[in-house]
C-alpha cells in the first residue's frame, strides 16, 4: 500500500512515525485527501510535512466539516493564503476551535494587524487557544487597572505573549513584586519593570543586585537604578561588569555618577561607550573642543547627531585613522559616512 505522506517527500521511517495507522485503506485514503487539500490551499510539501508531524491527527480530519470550514473562516477574515499557512503553522490547534473568529478579532483589535498577530502567535503557540474569558481578558483588565496604556499592553504582548497566558494569580504576584521593589503601578517604568520581573528568575534577578553591589553600590543604590532603568537586569553579569569596569577605570566615572545615570549601562560597550569616549578624549587632547562635555550628554546623542557634532571634526582636521577606527568599531566595517 502506498504511504499517503510520500507526496510530501517524507522518508518511510518518518512517515511511519507520523501516521501510526497504515492498515486501514479508508484511513489511508482520507490521509491522502487531507494532504492534497492542504497542498491545493497553498501549502508546500515541506509545510504540509511539518504540520502533519506536529499534529498527525489532521491526516484523518474531515475535510468538509473541519478543515475546509476553518480555512474558509480565516479567508473570510481577510487572511491571504500565505498568512493562513503562517498562522496555522504557528498554532495548528487553532483548527480545532469552533470560535476562531471571535478569538482572532479580539487579538487583532489589540495588535492592529495580521502581521503582528502572526508574529506574536509564533512566539507562543497557546495564545490563540487560551481561554479569553477565564484567562486573557482578566489579565488584560488587571493591567489596565494598573494604569498601563493600550500602547504599552500591545508592546508587552508582542514582546512577551506568554505573559498573557499565565494564571491570574501569577500576574498578581508579579505586579506585587514590582511594587515591592519600589516601582509604582502608575510610574512610566512600571511596564518595563513588570516585563523584567516576569522574564527573569529570582536567582538571576538577585545576581544582578550582587554584581552592582560588588562595584560599591549599596542596596538602595541598586533599587534606585532598577526604578530608573529596569532593563539593566536583562544584561549578563559579564556584560554589566565590563561596562562598570570601563566607566570607572577608563572613563573615570565615580560610582555616584553611574548610580545617578544608570542609562549608561544600557548602551553597548563596544559600539557606543568605548568608541565615543575615545573620540571625545582624542578631540579634547588635541584641543578641538570649545568646551568640556560630560559623558552622559555625549552617549545619549543619536548616531547621526554624534557624527555631525563631533565625528566630522576628525575628518575636518584630517585625522583619518581615528575616524576610520570609530566607523569600524560601530559599524563593523569601513563605511563612507556622509558628514555635514
Automatic annotation (TrEMBL):
Question: Could you tell me the keywords of this UniProt record?
Answer: Transcription, Transcription regulation, Transcription termination, Transit peptide
The answer, when asked if Hydrolase is one of the entry's keywords, is no
Q: Which GO terms describe its molecular function?
A: nucleic acid binding
Q: Which InterPro entries match?
A: MTERF (IPR003690), MTERF_sf (IPR038538)
Q: Which GO terms are recorded in the biological process aspect for this UniProt protein?
A: DNA-templated transcription termination
- Fetch the Pfam families from UniProt: mTERF
- Asked if the record carries the keyword Ligase, the reply is no
Q: Which Gene3D superfamilies match?
A: Transcription termination factor 3, mitochondrial
What family does this chain come from, according to its entry?
Answer: Belongs to the mTERF family.
Question: Which PANTHER family does UniProt cross-reference here?
Answer: CGI-12 PROTEIN-RELATED, OS02G0749800 PROTEIN
Q: What is this protein called?
A: Uncharacterized protein
- Native organism is Musa balbisiana (Banana)
Q: What is the lineage of its organism?
A: Eukaryota, Viridiplantae, Streptophyta, Embryophyta, Tracheophyta
